[in-house]
Amino acid sequence: MSYTYDDQNIFAKILRGEIPNQTVLETEHTLAFNDIQPLAPVHVLVIPKGAYVNHDHFSSEASDAEIADFARATAEVCRIKGVSPGEGGNGFRAISNAGIDAVQEVPHFHLHILGGRPLGRMLSMAK
Ligand code: AMP
What is the pTM of this model? Predict the structure, then answer.
């Protein structure tokens, strides 16, 4: 696997503090913040602090500590936002776009956490 990380992407700038964000949670290896153009009442982006392009880059090359921290932080975000079914919430959808077919806009791995309203089926049938 070969990925080249562009350190001028907007999330890299957020991580360096060059651009503000609405932080939901910050841990040792992970940052979660509100999406600037929310598609649902809850729309949080969870990103690793490390330089990973997408989900398979992160899953393949991140350390166990980074992966565990990311997973725990994601669960905590769902609890904070009140969408965790295990905590009485109505649920959420976790989406990560990678590459051209998925229309990934920002080349720093991020997980969208969407909720707060019924989200419909996973994919539109429209082509
Ligand atoms: P994707 O298409 O999966 O790469 O999604 C990128 C997401 O980043 C979109 O939902 C954008 O609204 C969001 N986004 C872009 N710039 C910012 C920013 N400065 N702060 C928060 N979210 C952003």
Answer: 0.97
| Alpha carbon distance 48, 46 (integer Å) | 7
The string of pLDDT tens digits covering residues 4-23 is 999 999 999 999 999 999 99
Distance CA 112, CA 105 (A): 13
90 within 8 A of 119, measured Cβ to Cβ: no
Classified as helix, coil or strand, 99 is coil
Alpha helices in 27-116 (DSSP H): 55-61, 64-80
Ligand 1 centroid–CA 109 distance in Å is: 11
Is 110 one of the annotated active-site residues of the chain?
yes
Across the chain, where does the E strand assignment appear?
Answer: 23-26, 30-34, 42-48, 92-95, 111-115
